[in-house]
Prior knowledge:
Strand order of the largest sheet: 9-8-5-6-7-12-18
Low-confidence stretches: none
CATH class of the largest domain: Alpha Beta
Oligomer: single chain
CATH topology of the largest domain: Nucleotidyltransferase, domain 5
Amino acid sequence: MRVPVLDKDGRPLMPTKPSRARRWLKDGLAKVVHNDLNVFCIQLLTEPSGTETQPIALGLDPGKKFTGAAIQSAKFTLFMAHLILPFPEITKKMSGRRILRRARRSRRINRQVPFHQRAHRQKRFDNRRQNKLPPSIRANKELELRVTKGLVKLFPINQITYEMVKAKGTKGFSPVMVGQKIMLEWLKAVAPTNTQEGWQTSILRQQLGLAKDKKNKEKQTPETHAHDGIALAASNFMQFEKFHTAKSRGHRWVGQVLVTPAPFKVISRPNFFRRQLHFENPVNVAPNHRKRKGGTVTPFGFRSGDLVKVEKAGIVYIGWIGGYTQTEKTKKISVYDHNWHRLGQFSPTKVKLFKRSSRLCVAV
């Protein structure tokens, strides 16, 4: 296990042992630095003895619903992550928005009159020729990019390896393939980036002796996706190269990588809802008394996405605020886990704030 280290100016140095980090903190030579990924990190308060760094690589194994990430050096595995992508939630919200938009148009347009007399709005511009990502794919890529930028600030990463996906059979594309070129452009602006195909990742993962769970990809363990990230990062230190001697020729592995225990994080995004004045149908009540839906601010001093600690019936929960209820009889705050499953509703007096919302949920 290794602890990320920053210098006085916030630049990442080589990670250190936990015992040495504790000694620095005890002697007042360093302080703890908080980050959005909830990775334990220290920052030196004095000049470091050296700023030389060893090669460290980041491997990204993208998917439609889940992405694996890992940081690897030649001698240590430094970090592993399992990203829960927002693809299903975004597609569901976009479908609901499309249905509501069509319902509003049907109420507004009188189809009993001739077409040229209907209240059709003329197009303001030709919006069918824009080169843009679908919202669900963009949300996936932006989450991967944000985690990558957060890791680059903690570790001296000098290489990113991104797995390129190709559709099977005669299929022209898959949701994982959409946006790969744009993602590579984003990553190249962060650090030097190269690519690798899936079959190469599989061979190297088997060579390293890493297990792969192909039955249940939703399982939040390193075997589902993070091990592929280790294999991708390890490709910068090991290659399957040709050799030719006087008596033989073929292929062999060149280089060596040691896979060690490392911190494993499950990272997701809060499932917020936009503020709406009414649900699918307007509510026929007095003005300013419509049912509330969505939004991020609560009247109790908390915001949606804040990391909190709550207690109920002697049981302590740690989760994220996702909503609230305020009526004449009840005042409750809803708290969710990193999978955005509600843990329960709690009284505001029993909610203790840990950290303001960073729009990331990291399993603790």
